[in-house]
Design goal:
This protein has 429 residues and is α/β, with parallel strands linked by helices. It is built from 10 helices and 16 strands. The protein folds into 2 domains: 288 residues, Aminopeptidase (3-Layer(aba) Sandwich); 130 residues, Alpha-Beta Plaits (2-Layer Sandwich). Strand 4 and strand 5 form a beta hairpin. GO terms for molecular function: metal ion binding; succinyl-diaminopimelate desuccinylase activity.
C-alpha cells in the first residue's frame, strides 16, 4: 500500500473507532484511582492489561515494591504492554500515561466518576488528566497494529502510578528497572493534556523545601520569657516579599513555557504551621497557653533552565542569613524535600519532528512548541532512563486538570489519536 493511501486509511480507521475510544475513556474514569492514598491501582491495570492481552500483546503487571507510597494496603501497581511487529528489528515507541487522579474537591455538577458523555465531551475526574490520553494512545496503537501488522520494531503502552505525587511508584521505578533504557525504548510520547496542537518539550525545575524557624516555649501569659518562632517566620515572609519575590519575577527564560506568567521564576508558599498541632475535629476545648517554639513553612520553588539548582538554594540561604544578621536570637533550618532539574528535548529530535509532521497533516497547522510550568514523568525518563527523545503530546486542555467538572473533548481525542497513529506509521511503518 502506498504511503499516502496507508496514512489515509489510518485516519479513517481512527474515525471509525470513535465509539470505542469514548467507551474506553468512560471505563477508565469509572475506576476511582484516587491519589492519595492510591485506590484501585490494580483494578485499572487489570482492565488495561486484559484488553491488550486479548489482542496478543505481552502484558506485565509490576508492583513498585519499596517505592515511596507503596504499602500492603495501597500497593503501587503499573502495567506495561508490548507488541512486537512482524517486520523484524526496529525502534520501540512507548506511550506512557499515569492512571492516578487527584482528589475530587467541591463544585462538581456531575458525577466525578460517572464518565458522562454530553455535548461531545466526556466528564469525570481524570478525564483530561489523563485517562482520555491513555485511551487515545491505546486506540491509536491498536488501529495502527491492525492495519500495519508488518511494522518494524515494537510498540509499548504503559499505565503507571503516582505521577500526581512525584511518580516514584510509577515511571521512576520502571526507569530504575531499565524499562526506559535507550537500548530498549527509543521514542516516548506522554499523552498529557497540553492541547492537541501543542508539543511539550519538557518542564521547569522544582525544589521543594521546609524552612523552620526556632524559638523557645514559655507560658503564653509571659511571652517575654519565651521566643516566638511564628514572629521569626513573619520576618522571613516580610523579607521574601521585599527582596526575593521581586527578583524572581524579573527573571525570564527562553524556554517556551506556558502560560506566560510561568516564563519567570516562581515560588509558592505551599503551607505554614506554627505552635501546637491542630486538634481533631471533635475537640471542643481551648488551645493551651504556650509560646510557639517552632514554625514550618513549605516552599515550592520552580526554576528555569538558565538557573543552577545550587544557586537557587544558596539564594534562600543568603536571605535567611540577612535576617539572622539583624534579628536577635534568630535560628533556622532548611530541609530539602524534593528536587528535579529542568529538561527540554531538542526541537530536531526524531519524535518531535515526527509528531510535528503528523499534527500538520491532521490539523492543517504547525504545532506550537511549549514547555510545562510544572513537572511530569518526563523527569524520570530523562534523569534515570537517560532517554532524551521524549515529549508530552495528547488531547485535553491543561487548564481543566484538577478542576470541578473536568472533561475531555471527543473530537480532540479522535484527532490526537490520528496524530499518534501517523507518528507510529512514520517511526515504525
Amino acid at each position: 500500500m502506498k504511503k499516502g493511501t496507508a496514512m489515509d486509511a489510518l485516519l479513517a480507521e481512527i474515525e471509525r473507532r470513535e465509539g470505542d475510544l469514548v467507551s474506553l475513556t468512560q471505563e477508565l474514569i469509572r475506576i476511582p484511582t484516587l491519589n492519595p492514598p492510591g485506590l484501585h491501582y490494580r483494578d485499572i491495570c487489570d482492565l488495561v492489561g486484559a484488553r491488550m492481552k486479548a489482542q496478543g500483546w505481552d502484558v506485565r503487571l509490576i508492583r513498585a515494591e519499596g517505592a515511596i507510597g507503596d504499602s500492603e494496603s495501597h500497593p503501587r501497581w503499573n502495567v506495561v504492554c508490548r507488541l512486537e511487529g512482524r517486520g523484524g528489528p526496529g525502534d520501540c515507541v512507548h506511550f506512557n500515561g499515569h492512571h492516578d487522579v487527584v482528589t475530587v474537591g467541591d463544585g462538581w455538577t456531575r458525577d466525578p466518576f460517572g464518565g458522562e458523555l454530553a455535548g461531545g465531551r466526556v466528564y469525570g475526574r481524570g478525564a483530561c488528566d489523563m485517562k482520555g490520553g491513555i485511551a487515545t494512545s491505546i486506540v491509536a496503537a491498536e488501529a495502527f497494529a491492525a492495519l500495519t501488522p508488518g511494522f518494524r520494531g515494537a510498540i509499548e503502552i504503559s499505565a503507571t502510578a503516582d505521577e500526581e505525587s512525584g511518580g516514584f511508584g510509577g515511571v521512576a521505578y520502571l526507569a530504575e528497572k531499565g524499562f526506559f533504557d535507550p537500548d530498549r525504548v527509543q521514542h516516548v510520547i506522554i499523552p498529557e493534556p497540553l492541547n492537541k496542537d501543542r508539543i511539550c518539550l519538557g518542564h521547569r525545575g522544582v525544589w521543594w523545601a521546609e524552612i523552620e524557624t526556632k524559638g523557645h516555649i514559655a507560658h503564653g501569659s509571659m511571652p517575654f520569657l519565651g521566643d516566638c518562632a511564628v514572629r521569626h517566620m513573619g520576618a522571613v515572609l516580610d523579607e521574601m516579599a521585599r527582596t526575593l519575590f521581586p527578583v524572581l519575577a524579573g527573571r525570564r527564560t527562553d524556554m517556551p513555557v506556558v502560560p506566560e506568567g510561568a516564563r519567570s521564576s516562581t515560588m509558592n508558599l505551599n503551607s505554614i504551621h506554627g505552635g501546637e498541632p491542630v486538634q481533631e475535629a471533635d475537640y471542643t476545648g481551648l488551645p493551651s497557653a504556650c509560646v510557639p517554639d517552632r514554625c514550618i513553612l513549605t516552599i515550592d520553588r520552580r526554576f528555569l533552565i538558565e538557573e543552577d539548582i545550587a544557586e537557587v538554594k544558596a539564594e534562600v540561604v543568603a536571605m535567611m542569613e540577612r535576617i539572622r544578621a539583624v534579628r536577635p536570637d534568630f535560628r533556622y533550618e532548611i530541609r530539602d524535600l524534593f528536587e528535579v532539574l529542568p529538561t527540554m528535548t531538542a526541537q530536531d529530535a526524531p519524535v518531535v519532528r515526527t509528531v510535528q509532521d503528523a499534527v500538520h497533516r491532521v490539523l492543517g497547522k504547525s504545532a506550537e512548541f511549549v514547555v510545562s510550568p510544572g513537572t511530569y514523568d518526563q523527569k524520570h525518563i530523562d534523569r534515570i532512563g537517560r532517554l532524551r527523545n521524549c515529549i508530552a503530546y495528547g488531547p485535553g486542555i491543561l487548564d481543566l486538570a484538577h478542576q470541578p467538572d473536568e472533561w475531555i473533548g471527543v473530537r480532540d481525542m479522535v484527532q490526537s489519536g490520528q496524530v499518534m497513529a501517523l507518528a507510529l506509521h512514520d517511526l515504525l511503518g
